[in-house]
Amino acid sequence: MIASRFHLRRPQARPTATAAPEQQRSYTHTVSNILILGAGRVGATVAEQLVYEQHNVTIVDDNPANLAPLTSKLDLRVVAGSASSPTTLREAGAADAELLLAVTPTDELNMVACKIAYQLFRVPTRIARIRNADLLAHEDLFSEEDGFAISHTITPAQVVTDYLSRLVKMPEALQVLDFANGLVQLVVTRVTEGAPMAGKALTAFNDVLPNTDRRVVGIYRNNRYIRPDGDSELHAGDEVFVLAESRQMRKVIGALHVVESPIKNVLLAGGGNVGYRLAKALQKDYSVKLVEADPVRAEWLANELAGVLVLHGDATNETMFEAEQIHRTDMYLALTSDDEDNIMSALLARQMGARKVISIINRSRYVDLLQDSRIDVAISPAQLTIGTLLAHARQGDIAAVKPLRRGAAEAVELVVHGTKNVSRVIGRRVDEIRMPAHAFLATIVRAGKVIMVHHDTVIEPDDRCIVFVHDKLRTREVEHLFAVKLGFF
């Protein structure tokens, strides 16, 4: 029973504006021809998103049955064949591709495909999904000169593991997203009765937290977006999106949500890639139990995870939950590869007294249905993964793309380059920048210092700007606004 798999790791540093002109990346260019190898969950989800953003997408898979559903609902090109075949890659348009995503289930196939794409077709950017930790430990394998010519690697299981770890540490949150190498966080939480900010306007934040700067970038009430300003009043039940320095985020959340007791006892269902990684990450700081249905896998997990109690059993079995005193569990996480099992076991755990319940759901429509149910947080691994991939297909120097509200909104981290003469934002006050109506410039990171934006904040070269976009259809306008004009080159 292998859990869903989804992380992005960058073995090579992204160029900056201080590089020599001939080494600078053309930040004004938008990728248009994208080749995806592998039509599994990740490949299909990314393809759907890229088609939605009006890129030219071709997807390759050796199983025609995986391609048929895509052709019926998406405007893209499909090619049946091997990802490591030069003939197949040529037919799929590798010679004209600007970005290749190798996300087949096999690490070695992804690596070889990247090498062929570079060696024979000179595809500029090549991203490979690599799950084998032994391979990831040898970055020289990915170099253009002596390796497999992989520009970036993704390990989807690690993306999910890191995300879940943050939720365990911050049980009041619905989402916790890192920006600027962890200096800034965006947290989504619900306002609760009795919280210091409940029933108060946002201006009261200065009295509640006088020495803690933060920016509320979105308020959702009954699924309706409210653009925040100082007079916006917070009601119990509101879903609030707030940015702050990571080291200050605990205080900020405490103003919006009644502080909960820390998580101590964690029960994980599913010992696949995600379950194993998460148990390993949590075992030093929490009391962790892991339930695995496969006896052989359970024995292997028990040998690998010295600090975890591994149980062989069925997480949908009420008797097993009773035996393990589920009512004393602070957080239950359903992490198997079966959506129905995850849903049923999560609902059962909640009914039997688990304090917090989180479930991985691979079908995005299920996530929409369950997010506001008795399951506290429903997570789509594919949605978590595509943000890291989309950063390479966007206009401008995009450091991160984080989907929000099941992909309807986004938070984007952009690095600005150039001078006032060739930039639409550099040297200008924030109140002079014509931001799209549904975008909110909230935070800047400058030389490692976090700055919460005010109307008179002036943008400088190399600033990392974090923008919340309520309507993702407007993201491209934001990217165009922050991109360098062609005159820079």
From TrEMBL:
Segments of skewed composition (Low complexity): 13-24
Positions of the RCK C-terminal domain: 174-258, 399-484
InterPro entries documented for this protein: K_uptake_TrkA, NAD(P)-bd_dom_sf, RCK_C, RCK_C_sf, RCK_N, Trk_Ktr_HKT_K-transport
RCK N-terminal domain sequence ranges: 31-154, 263-379
Family matches, as Pfam families: TrkA_C, TrkA_N
Segments of skewed composition (Basic residues): 1-12
Region feature Disordered, mapped onto this chain: 1-25
SUPFAM superfamilies named in the record: NAD(P)-binding Rossmann-fold domains, TrkA C-terminal domain-like
Alphabetical keyword list: Ion transport, NAD, Potassium, Potassium transport, Transport
Protein name: Trk system potassium uptake protein TrkA
Organism: Silvimonas amylolytica
